[in-house]
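Q: Could you write out the predicted structure for this multi-component system? I'm mainly interested in how the pieces pack against one another.
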Amino acid sequence: MRKIIRGGTIVNASGASDADVLIDGETIAGVGRFDGVDAEVIDAAGCFVLPGAIDNHTHMSMPFGGTRSSDDYDTGTQAAAAGGTTCIVDFALQMHPNGLRSSLEEWMGRAEDAAHVDYGFHMAITSADRETIADMGAMVEEGVTSFKVFMAYPNVLMVRDDEFLAVLERSRELGTLVMVHCENGFAIQHLVNTALANGQTDPIHHALTRPETMEAEATGRAIRLAEFAGAPLFVVHVSCRDAAEEIIAARSRGVEAYGETCIQYLFNSIDDLRRPDFAGARYVCSPPLRDAANQPFLWNALRFDHLQSISTDHCPFTDEQKRLGLDDFSKIPNGLAAIQHRLPMMWEHGVREGRLSMTRVVDITSTAIAKMFGLYPRKGVIDVGADADIVVFDPNRRHVFGTDTSFMNVDYDIYEGQELAGSPRVTLSRGTVVFDDGKIVTKPGHGRFVRRSLFDPLAV
Ligand SMILES: [Zn+2]
């Protein structure tokens, strides 16, 4: 059965126009006027019709500190769809001493028959021995064309610089993209140990022991290693001006360095960690929330393409899980519940408040991500032949944040009580309506694994 999304304004990264979208099966069959065509009609009058947002930074059922993030691929992708996100690229973790293949299979198994929107994986390398480096080629064969390394979390996820360099060298050979979490893990460990020895156990000390300079130092070091290896690099969750400036400097001298920020660094600050009754623990993530003085710089970095995209780093934990760190901030599971909130928050505070154009918001939430992570032009654009991953965004569909409107499996909402003027009304994944006016209407398993192409430096 064909569908027509009628009467809306299509907004691609390249421009906006008033047109209908004709969907045949799973793909877009036409963009134009389709009066008299026999098809099911989705009325988009007064709405913006956007390519589905893509979130390249999520952690579903992620093991952390003896527990797991509380959203699985079912609940997490329901929340994604409700917020206009139609594809996620989640992190599979190398489970030492297993190889990459067995780890990927484990993550594939979790997502299979569970997801409501399409999903891919990056492979996070936590132990880059010879066997692992050799295994990277096998990931490419599986359609996993990006890798992740951590410069933080010593003895858990962190790789040494020699391991990192080996990953970069192999990535250059393969034509893949390396993503990096930039914080100086050992220096931070020292600050954490000192704070705890002084009896400083509250959530705020999570932020105070991970200062901006530790992120900036690691960002500069990561870029220099990538520059030496001749490999492109994507810096995840840039939280502050000093780290962003390392990326800007690298790009200006011709280094293929890219970066994203996350919504929490635009809309939250270190003050959230001071909330009473341990509520500050809800806002514990790494890098930590920063002084709000960084926010205008990050907005401008998005506007001027100093940073290329925005994700969520969605990694939710319930209050009970957060209480693992009640007496020791370093035991609070790291992560925020945010996957549902990105596109609507960027529309409200970006477009409506005049910080970013509509086309730029589409670019940084969808198109640029599709291009950097090998999904374009199948995803990230409304055009003939692309997957019919589409959001009908109603600028007058008011949304009030709270647990009653959240599909995320957490018992609080980080924006509880805040309101938006507009929000997604209908979200389609490959031509199937997933989210319709407040309800998820698909069964788990609609979403499929997507194989991604190799990184194309000239496409981004
Ligand atoms: Zn993350």
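A: Regarding packing and overall arrangement: The chain is about 30% helix and 20% strand.
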